[in-house]
Amino acid sequence: MQNPIYWIIGIVIFIFLVIVYIYNRLITLAQRVKEAESDIDVQLKRRADLIPNLVEAVKGYASHEKEVFERVTQARSALLSAKNIKEEIEADNMLTSALKTLFAVAENYPELKANQNFLELQRELRDAEDKIMASRRFYNAVVMEYNSFLQQFPNNLIANIFKFKPYEYFEIEVEAEKEVPKVKF
Predict the structure, then answer these.
(1) Which residues contact 158 (CB under 8 A, 6 or more apart)?
(2) Around Cβ 37, how many Cβ atoms within 10 Å?
(3) What CA–CA distance (Å, rounded) separates 59 from 18?
(4) Which CATH number is 4-64+105-171 given?
């Protein structure tokens, strides 16, 4: 019969290796979440950089729409100064709303809608919005993977020991954007 001390040592080594694996997996997943968050930041910054040009293009045609321009500028500043994902979400929702108002104003100026510079800025902004949407989807997928791993047994025990916390999803906060659009013919 074998010595029981070898069994105990083997079990301790096995438990240690499981803990190391879970810890390293949590670190890897947390880094993927941070990378995905960074991707969103890059895309939001790209869109924010387009906004001053867009505002200037519209200003030339609709100079009396001062309140709209101020809302867009304030929303852009809030987005650029956001410190965490929650602030980013709020600022992004505010900016999206302000941009919708800006484009509604632009609809009243046919010569602006025909302006090549404005059309190019609109195309770039649409492209930026598509990339932001893709970045959000990727972020949410990575957060789901991380949070799921974090909550599984025995991972949750290891996560609690090392104080890993779940991440928040990037969600739409503006109720109007959650509504199903009404189509009338």
Answers:
(1) 19, 22, 23, 26
(2) 19
(3) 61
(4) 1.20.1440.20
The CB density around residue 25, as the number of other CB atoms within 10 Å, is: 15
* pTM for this entry: 0.75
DSSP class of residue 60 equals: T
Would you say 140 and 170 are in contact if contact means Cβ atoms under 8 Å apart?
yes
Nearest to 114 by CA among 48, 69, 66, 57: 57
Q: Would you state the structure tokens that stand for residue 28, as one six-digit string?
A: 């890897």
- Are 118 and 106 a contacting pair, CB within 8 Å? yes
pLDDT in tens, 49-65: 888 888 887 777 666 66
Q: Which of 71, 41, 47, 48 is nearest to 170 (CA)?
A: 41
